[in-house]
Amino acid sequence: MKAIKFRLTVMNFLIFAVWGAYLCSLGIYLMKVGMGHNIGKFFAIQGIVSLFMPTIIGIIADRWVPAQKMLGICHLLAAVFMALAGYMGMKYGETVTFGQLFPFYAISVAFFMPTIALGNSVSYNALTQAGLDTVKAFPPIRVFGTIGFIASMWIVNFTGFKDNYMQLFVSSAWGIILGIYAFTLPNCPVSKTAKGAKFVDTFGLRAFSLFKDGKMCIFFIFSFLLGMCLQVTNGFATPYLHAFSKIPEYADAFAVKNNVFLSSISQVSETLCILLIPFFLRKFGIKKVMIIAFVAWALRFFFLGAGSPTGFGLVLLILSMIVYGVAFDFFNISGSLFVDKSTDVSIRSSAQGLFMMMTNGLGATVGSFCAQAVVKHFTMVPNPEGPHPFRPNPDVTQLMQGWTNSWYVFAAFALVVGILFAVLFKYKHEPEKQ
Predict the structure, then answer these.
(1) Which of the four, 46, 150, 191, 334, has the lowest number of CB atoms within 10 Å?
(2) Which domains are present in the chain?
(3) Other C-beta atoms within 10 Å of 32: how many?
(4) What is the pLDDT of residues 75-124, one digit of tens each?
(5) At residue 191, does pLDDT exceed 70?
């Protein structure tokens, strides 16, 4: 039993190490090569592929290819295309174009995103085969996924890869290791009965009937709106912190030179805040917990806008990283539990898929494009002489004020949506049923 737990721990560590190598540092690299105006597209593609790739890959794993092998295949393909993206960055240096880099990156992400769900499937199957309770055994294993994400961030930060193409090669290397390792994991049987499933069940379409329920309809709409916040700081927090290097008094500050390390505090907080969820759900119910999440997102953005790399400003930046755990966990995990408790067992899995589609799919996609538009409006100016149409404002004072304004816009959005949720979402907490 200990052996299988250890092997699954290694798998989860590697899955999220692949992601952590670039997710919070890619924006810095894109800014450096003149593609700051395209950061939103690089993060939106994660939401776009999440609309259909997990379903397609999941069906293949259910019917024809065992999940552990599908996990290996996906990671090997993702690693190859991420390495090709890195090669394009290496070959063309700071003159690399969107058309040279983005296609390989997008294909890599398309194969990576389904592996999070595949990893869960492999874990649940292996633990069940070992006679273990998945509810008790899986969370400690999954925590090491976040640890892997943090470890990868630290590697990229302290090796100096955070602002260049090498972070893509680091991600690819993790992917190759995991791709090979996955084939050694316990076999996940394919389902023969799935072949006769109806189309609406196969693709999880029956869950859309939940929109007929007023309470669930409002919940999913606000899940979409809150999902718009998910990729904002992943895409733009480290480029913002890196921009402080243009100000002489901040150029050598630890928070500027190690901005990816500073951002990793967010993931540490995320890990710890998971422990708070059972208490808060029992004590306050889903409505108040979700309102707390909205307020936390507003504070996350406000602290970023008001912060700076030294003195009290650094305290605000650290607070922004700490409050992220509440913002993310109280929304994603609590929302998932609410969906689980509020839906019939016959559509429970599909309802979870719908929740993910509204948040990490539609919400994250629209949010990435909107965030890009806001940042572009406040921090960039036309660049008629260069290879890229826009560049950061050369006036450092205006540039940093633009970043501050951007964060305040995001904070206002989260706060307003939170107030609307508090007014429109009708829910009575009944502690005895939690």
Answers:
(1) 191
(2) 1-197 (1.20.1250.20), 207-434 (1.20.1250.20)
(3) 16
(4) 999 999 999 999 999 999 999 999 999 999 999 999 999 999 899 889 98
(5) no
